[in-house]
């Protein structure tokens, strides 16, 4: 199993319609592969789903809104009519919903060769999630970890059958901006202040709350690597 922090220059080029600059030859043939992409309704997630499906993969597009995901699928099929796409309901702000999404995937009885942990959020004000933890920490860290642990049987099946499983987390150059002022504060993310929604901007930085998307995703990568 390979876990990587994906830098998205290839996908950004495609997203901004510089398709003549995108070298798809670096993406292998993916016929017979099953892929799960979170946050797949737009942006990097939709572009990734399109490229992976174009290379022959069966792609599960995970997103909380079925109408928006279906809209994204229709847009992809305008240029890739044979794209093999499936919707998977996925609400990263709720661990209950994340586990349900994972079990929903397992219900298809398929191996899972590639996971792209793309869903993420960043906001200027902190708030509590449905589980009582800081909202961005829940979406950018806990949801990824919970999803992978839930679909582990499908990942293990793919590893046994094919010997090659990939788990990739998208991020940005933001991860290189760490300093004492911009770092992870795990205890704060589950504090009583968060649960009572009384944060008062206490942990804000110029880049948003301390548990921002790249920070949380990096933490997910570290913890997944340790667990696996």
From TrEMBL:
It comes from the Eukaryota. The keyword Oxidoreductase applies. Pfam families: adh_short (PF00106). GO terms for molecular function: oxidoreductase activity. Keywords: Oxidoreductase. Belongs to the short-chain dehydrogenases/reductases (SDR) family. PANTHER family: NAD(P)-BINDING ROSSMANN-FOLD SUPERFAMILY PROTEIN, RETINOL DEHYDROGENASE. This is NAD(P)-binding protein. It comes from Lepraria neglecta.
């Amino acid at each position: 199993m390979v876990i990587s922090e994906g830098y998205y220059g290839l996908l950004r080029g495609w997203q901004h319609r510089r398709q003549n600059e995108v070298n798809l030859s670096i993406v292998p043939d993916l016929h017979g592969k099953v892929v799960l992409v979170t946050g797949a309704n737009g942006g990097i997630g939709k572009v990734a789903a399109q490229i992976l499906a174009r290379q022959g993969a069966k792609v599960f597009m995970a997103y909380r809104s079925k109408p928006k995901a279906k809209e994204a699928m229709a847009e992809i099929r305008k240029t890739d009519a044979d794209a093999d796409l499936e919707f998977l309901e996925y609400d990263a702000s709720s661990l209950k919903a994340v586990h349900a999404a994972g079990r929903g995937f397992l219900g298809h009885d398929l191996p899972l060769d590639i996971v792209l942990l793309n869903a993420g959020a960043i906001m200027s004000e902190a708030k509590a999630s449905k589980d009582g933890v800081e909202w961005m920490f829940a979406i950018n860290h806990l949801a990824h970890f919970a999803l992978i642990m839930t679909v582990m049987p499908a990942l293990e099946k793919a590893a046994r059958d094919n010997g090659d499983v990939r788990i990739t987390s998208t991020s940005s150059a933001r991860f290189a901006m760490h300093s004492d002022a911009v770092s992870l504060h795990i205890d704060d993310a589950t504090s009583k202040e968060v649960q009572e929604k009384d944060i008062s901007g206490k942990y804000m930085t110029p880049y948003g709350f301390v548990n921002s998307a790249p920070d949380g995703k990096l933490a997910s990568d570290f913890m997944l690597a340790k667990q696996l």
